[in-house]
Description:
By secondary structure, this protein is α/β, with parallel strands linked by helices. The protein has helices at residues 28-33, 63-76, 91-107, 124-130, 208-212, 227-241, 246-262, 270-290, and strands at residues 85-89, 113-117, 137-142, 152-157, 179-184, 203-207, 220-224, 302-304, 309-311, 317-320, 324-327.
Amino acid sequence: MVKVENTKNIAMSDSIVNLDHGDPTAYEEYWRKMGDRCTVTIRGCDLMSYFSDVNNLCWFLEPELAEAIKELHGAVGNAATEDRYIVVGTGSTQLCQAAVHALSLLAGGTEPVSIVAAAPYYSTYVEETTYVRSGMYKWEGDAWGFDKKGPFIELVTSPNNPDGTIRETVVNRPDDDEAKVIHDFAYYWPHYTPITRCQDHDIMLFTFSKITGHAGSRIGWALVKDKEVAKKMVEYIIVNSIGVSKESQVRTAKILKVLKETCTSETENFFEYGREMMKNRWEKLREVAKESDFTLPKYPEGYCNFFGKTLESYPGNLILGDTCFILL
């Protein structure tokens, strides 16, 4: 989802595309057209305290952001928020680390908890689970071949990053109390994939950047069923960053509310805009692929509860061959 710009002083053949990481600025045109509807004014005396809501388990979560998150999920129908604890984080990366920490700590064993994900998986998962060299958990790699006994955590990303497929758990041990799952639904929004059901899992991660393109705000949230898990996640974030920026939370809340207000509009629906953009990019990519040796995947159609019709998926990324990773 990178917007590639060319200037008058640089020939197109000399333009540079950074493939090291994605930068979702492609939606900038939409937000520019929205003018001041998402503008937030913060005075010098505002938001000075560490605390947002002392009565909330996640006491650094701004109430207006919590409300906006619930309203947007309710309008889109992609995730259940009832009887959940909302934990806000500095992007979903911090939340994934917090969830792994919480589940490993609560496992209470003497051996490290195994962490797995089905290949191809989000490459950052390896860094997230190995960087601090924690003795509480250990990266064990591909979930497809995992058969180790004892507690484990499976990371499930759906739609998957990097290949855009819809994923379920691979290590199926439904009666095993030591089996835990963290669901990453960063791309489970109607501009990328049909919303076929309201997801209802123990830990569900979402990120502001993948929905609207506002990666610089560094906001993510987790919907967590278990109070003790949510509590340990909050403790991790407190130690790691003493909460989450209030300025970013207030801006995110404002934009999410605009999303919710316009999601039924015929002219301002962001999800319609984003879906049309992704469709056009996929069509251009398929035209290019016809002139090459690459074959692009055909994603199955599904009935989208949000749009009320059967639609194709237009993932934000894909893999060509064994090594080429493309950001749409």
